[in-house]
Amino acid sequence: MNQTGGSGWQITTDTSGPLMIALFVRDAAGLDGAGHPALSHAAPKIRPADHTHLTAEVGGLSALKTEWEAWWEQLLKAHPQTSPELTPPEFEAFGNSPALQRVLQAHFGSALTWARERRSEYAQLEAERVASGSDQLLNDMVGDRLMEVGRKARDFNLTIIELPLDEQRAWYLEPDKILMSHELMSQPELFRSYVQPVVEILA
Q1: Same domain, yes or no, for 102 and 164?
Q2: Does position 106 have pLDDT exceeding 90, yes or no?
Q3: Same domain assignment for residues 107 and 37
Q4: Distances in Å between the alpha carbon of 187 and those of 8, 47, 177, 179, 184?
Q5: Per-residue three-class SS string for 107-167
Q6: Which domain holds residue 139?
Q7: Phi and psi dihedrals of 171, rounded to 5?
Q8: pLDDT digits (tens, 9 = 90+) for 46-96
Q9: Are residues 133 and 64 part of one domain?
Q10: 34, 26 in Cβ contact below 8 A?
Q11: Within this chain, do residues 115 and 132 fall inside the same structural domain, yes or no?
Q12: Is the pLDDT of residue 194 over 90?
């Protein structure tokens, strides 16, 4: 996690294990385009499998999609906490989402391993940013904005959640969250094109 801030404002960049697990489940179940915003595929690519046999008795793929979307929305709202709790092997918190519960039971081990690997890659990425000074980009962006408007920043908190996605872009979730590919910050111009407009709204 990296935090940058000034008088009355703070920007936090971090990743999220629970959101990574949810992405794994989405891609493994072939739920393309599910969730708001509809994020690109995870990277490295997760091979989708047919889940008809698992979900047929509990509403099939359409029920799984609805349940997954409700879970995704909950995770985004609760971040950085985890809600509902992911407790194997039964996943009792998902009792009202039987299709999702079955898919979690089938894939949780692989999802957890995949998410842990991505987390350790992210930690390495963060260390490289600190070493190169590219973690100062956000500070510079707010500074540029304040110079432009000639006043102090308004009070704001912005959370940037970086995820292993194959499309280099960001998605703004009003009022105070951005989801983005964790490779995006390594392309300063592209990164700025997504984040600067949000900084202008908030600061």
Answers
A1: no
A2: yes
A3: yes
A4: 28, 28, 20, 16, 6
A5: HHHHHHHHHHHHHHHHHHHHHHHHHHCHHHHHHHHHHHHHHHHCCCCCCEEEEEEEECECC
A6: 2-13+128-202
A7: -130, 125
A8: 999 999 999 999 999 999 999 999 999 999 999 998 889 999 999 999 999
A9: no
A10: yes
A11: no
A12: yes
* pTM (2 d.p.): 0.94
How much is the CA Rg of the chain, to the nearest whole Å?
18
Among 103, 121, 139, residue at a domain's last position:
121
pLDDT attached to residue 70 = 97
* Dist. CA 48–CA 45, nearest whole Å: 9
How many other β-carbons are positioned within 10 Å of the β-carbon of residue 59?
A: 15
- Domain end position, chosen among 102, 121, 140: 121
Q: Are residues 70 and 142 in the same domain?
A: no
d(CA 128, CA 134): 9
Q: What is the CATH number of the domain that holds 6?
A: 3.30.2010
DSSP state, 42? B
83 and 111 both lie in a single domain: yes
d(CA 76, CA 41): 17
The first and second tokens of residue 66, run together, are 């609805």
Q: Check pLDDT > 90 for residue 97.
A: yes
Q: Are residues 23 and 8 in the same domain?
A: no
Rounded CA-CA distance 14/180 in Å is 10
Cα distance between residue 114 and residue 52, in whole Å:
23
